[in-house]
Amino acid sequence: MKKITKIIAFAAAAAMLTACFTGCGKKGKTLAQVKSAGELVIATSPDFPPFEELNNGNVEGIEIDILNIICEKLGVKLKIEQMDFDSVLPGVQAAKYDVGVSGITITPDREKNTLFTDSYCLAEQSIVVTENSPIKAKADLDGKKISVQSGTTAEEFCGKQGYALSSFQANSDAQTALTTGKVDAWVIDNLTAIEMVAAYNAENDSKLVILDEAMTTEPYAFACCFGSEDLVAEINKVLADLVKDGTVKEIFERYDAPYVSPTENN
Ligand code: ARG
After folding, report:
1. What is the 150 CA–ligand 1 centroid distance (Å)?
2. Is residue 26 very low, low, confident or very high in pLDDT (cuts 50, 70, 90)?
3. Coil vs helix vs strand at 160
4. Residues 46-53: what's their mean pLDDT?
5. Burial (0-12, 13-18, 19+ Cβ within 10 Å), 140
6. I need a labelling partner for 33 at 20 to 30 A (CA). Which of 6, 75, 105, 216 fits?
7. Is the peptide bond before 50 cis (omega within 30 degrees of 0)?
8. CA–CA separation, 147 vs 187, rounded Å?
9. Which residues contact residue 100 at a Cβ distance below 8 angstroms, ignoring those fewer than 6 apart?
């Protein structure tokens, strides 16, 4: 191949690769398309109380309550598709679902191939250990084994810190890795940690403890595919009203969850 042909071939391959990273050309639905479909299809991993969890086979939680109001305002039905967390964002990015609803944190990396709504609350990563653990703070994690859920910000953050990780598709398995002594600590978003630790402690003699020191700040939002810009703008309008008039806070209170508004720390 002549040099110039090689350069052209390389440029074409690079362009194709870039297109694939941004969703292989798939576009998210517009607001009009969602309205004419009559439903908003959400992707969720219902292993994340109090945001989404299974109750007698139904997906329930803070985010489902918020989405129900959004759907009511859009005049469409809510359709829930369940999957593991590590399939939520890839599915949304490939426009298989309209909105990812899974306690999803906005990160600069994810923003490259995901269209996020505005954030509606702040959370953080917590460190969970067994009650007699020598780990009392983040500094004690060096050289320790940590369990996390696959595809989460906990996995990304702890990986960057160089900790030895065990990743699990189900949150409950990440918890079991800790309670069965396979890892030294479990890193997970704080509000889910509070719920899952309370549920475990209520049923077991051995207890789990959430350390005071938090690891990161996590602005939660809903995730869409590029192409859905006007849908996201409409969702943002509804969300802004719900945050402003106290509805979001009220929904958190319904689940006994402390609410931190996205502007609280600014
Ligand atoms: N906030 C974290 C993230 O965005 C964890 C979300 C996990 N969600 C779930 N439904 N299991 O990565």
Report:
1. 9
2. confident
3. helix
4. 98
5. middle
6. 105
7. yes
8. 6
9. 42, 43, 44, 88, 89, 91, 92, 114, 222, 223, 224
Q: What is the C-alpha separation between 257 and 128, in angstroms, rounded?
A: 18
Give the residue from 197, 203, 192, 198 showing the smallest Cα distance to 154: 192
Residue type, 231: L
Q: Can you point out the beta strands (E) in the chain?
A: 39-44, 47-48, 52-55, 58-60, 77-82, 99-105, 115-116, 121-130, 145-149, 164-168, 185-189, 208-210, 217-224
Q: Are 226 and 28 in contact (CB under 8 A)?
A: yes
Measured in angstroms, how far is the CA atom of residue 101 from the centroid of ligand 1? Answer: 9
Q: Is 238 left (phi over 0), alpha (psi -120 to 50) or beta?
A: alpha
> Is there an atom of ligand 1 within 6 Å of 85 CB?
yes
pLDDT of residue 4: 52
Q: Which residues contact 161 (CB under 8 A, 6 or more apart)?
A: 141
pTM attached to this predicted model: 0.90
Closest ligand 1 atom to Cα of 218: 1
Number of the ligand 1 atom closest to the C-alpha atom of 153: 12
Report pLDDT digits (tens) over 73-98. Answer: 999 999 999 999 999 999 999 999 99
Mean of pLDDT values over 143-162? 97
The pLDDT value given to residue 17:
44
* Both structure tokens of 191: 């509000």
Our answer on whether the CB atom of 125 is closer than 6 Å to any ligand 1 atom is no
Q: Which residues contact residue 178 at a Cβ distance below 8 angstroms, ignoring those fewer than 6 apart?
A: 128, 129, 130, 147, 184, 185, 186, 208
From the CA of 25, how far away is ligand 1's center (Å)? 26
